[in-house]
Structures are given as structure tokens and as C-alpha cells.
Write a structure and sequence with these properties.
Length: 176
């Protein structure tokens, strides 16, 4: 009885090894644990005002990500990708990207313009999805997370080193 209140997870930040570790496939579907994880990830993402959140960002090293390119405006935009794979990538787009695990830093990143993805839902059912522009960008960013790859890997070495140095300073000052 009663409604369950969501748990807002702590989002791990750059420097935590879980973010650079390839995640393990999800093998158990339809469980209340998986449903709760997904619901809490959505609430954590909305609370942090992000468009996407991958499980490794909440210290769960599993191949699962939630995305809502409408920022919570459109309930039908809620997308859960479990064990996702690219079937196709086409074209190119360059645009600014940020990451909830690297707060305060945004850089231009080149991504495919269109993607076709195959993934499973919380019940384990396979589905395919075509996406372009912002949604395609979000999907590529989140699947990168599942492979232990951060958007910093897609910016120039110069910019990456600069950002790393700034983060190191923030860490030393206990502000990261
Ligand atoms: Ni991210």
C-alpha cells in the first residue's frame, strides 16, 4: 500500500574507476530490483537535470541506461536501453555535450547523425529503435558509458588535459 518514494542515487564523478570500466550485461529481467533501479535512475536523472544516465554513473556496473531527450516534458520519451548494441550509424553531427559525472565542463563532440539500436526492455524483450540528432547523440553518449568511455575521449588531447588538470585542482581543494 502507498506509493513508494524514489531513491535519488549519488552520481559518481570523473576519477571513479567504475566510469572507465566496461559494464557487465544484464542477465535478470522483470525483477522488482531491476524495475526499482530503472525508476530510481530516471528520478536521479531528472533531479540532476540530465538527458541521460547510465548505470555505471550510479556505481552499478551493468549495461543499462535511461534517456529522456524531452527532459521529463513528454512521458512517452522515457527510454530504457538494456544491453544495447548499434546496428547502424550514419552521417555526422557536431555539438556541445556535457556529462553528469563531469559537471561544469562542456565540449563539442562529433557523433553519428543517425543510429539504429537494438536493446532489451525491463522484461528482457528485444526491440529496435531509430534515432537522429539529439536523441542519437544521447544514445551514443550513454552507450559509451556502458563501454567505460567518457565524452572526454572524443575531444582533443589538449582540451582533455586542460580539463583533467582543472578537475585535479578541484579534487585537491575538495570541490569535486
Ligand atoms: Ni555522461
Amino acid at each position: 500500500m502507498g506509493t513508494k518514494t524514489a531513491t535519488i542515487y549519488k552520481i559518481v564523478k570523473y576519477g571513479d574507476p567504475v566510469l572507465e570500466t566496461p559494464a557487465q550485461p544484464v542477465t535478470e529481467f522483470g525483477t522488482s530490483e531491476l524495475r526499482e533501479l530503472v525508476d530510481n535512475m530516471f528520478e536521479t536523472m531528472y533531479a540532476a537535470k540530465g538527458l541521460g544516465l547510465a548505470a555505471p554513473q550510479v556505481a552499478v556496473s551493468q549495461r543499462l541506461a535511461v534517456i529522456d531527450a524531452s527532459s521529463g516534458e513528454d512521458p512517452s520519451a522515457r527510454l530504457v536501453l538494456i544491453n544495447p548494441e548499434f546496428l547502424n550509424k550514419q552521417g555526422k553531427q557536431v555539438g556541445e555535450e556535457g556529462c553528469l559525472s563531469i559537471p561544469g565542463f562542456r565540449e563539442d563532440v562529433s557523433r553519428a547523425m543517425k543510429v539504429r539500436v537494438r536493446a532489451q526492455n525491463v522484461e528482457g524483450e528485444l526491440f529496435e529503435l531509430d534515432a537522429e540528432e539529439l536523441l542519437a547523440r544521447a544514445i551514443q553518449h550513454e552507450i559509451d558509458h556502458l563501454d567505460g568511455v567518457l565524452f572526454l575521449s572524443h575531444v582533443s588531447m589538449l582540451k582533455r588535459d586542460l580539463i583533467r588538470r582543472k578537475i585535479r585542482k578541484l579534487s585537491k581543494a575538495n570541490e569535486w
